[in-house]
Amino acid sequence: MKYNRILLKLSGESLQGAQKYGLDPAQLQSYAEQIKAVAETGIQIGIVIGGGNIFRGMTGAKRGFDRVKGDQMGMLATIINSLALQSALEDNGVKCKVLTSIRMEPIGEYFSKARAIEYLEAGYVVIIGGGTSNPYFTTDTASALRGIEIEAQVMLKGTRVDGVYTADPEKDPTAVKFDEITFDEVISRQLKVMDQTAFTLCRENKLEIIVFDMDTPGNLGKVLAGEQIGTLVKLA
Asked: What domains are defined for the chain?
């Protein structure tokens, strides 16, 4: 295995599966099985999950919610998702801890770098909920920040798309997928990998990103085994 410690970013929307809202038990089980298989190889896994399947702050702001309160609701949504994934992992025999960026014991322990690394080194999967704990920051930014803090060697961005393309493949049938692309080329081509704050954090702290389709069972293990799945966003 190329990596000893990873940060896995999961989409909240993906957790709803075929539903239009909420949590799909079958999708949670699929994710738990993939994560278990990787954890059993000895790779240390930190996870950040979005909350878009429950509530998204920016969408709420467009509907009249105060943006700060909307983002705080979104942070709580990420913690619901974190607890759901923890439950699925534990049902599959995986040791797992939820740390939260907002104090809410006993739901989860308050996040600190030292505590997170201590659990990772003890063989726990560590899920970090609550975003950055600040409004106006996305869970992409939270995953970049936590990946840097826990000293992950790579961020795996698990999405419903199988990589980075020259254009939106759902809108442009001629779009071509990249196997590898540099941070600078993503910027020059104005491609959307993640929000600019998150992308800049990764670039400046030399945290490479692999964008891949997490919804295909087994893909997480294949990526970490070095198979050519998804797109590697690398340093020049």
From this structure: 5-234 (3.40.1160.10)
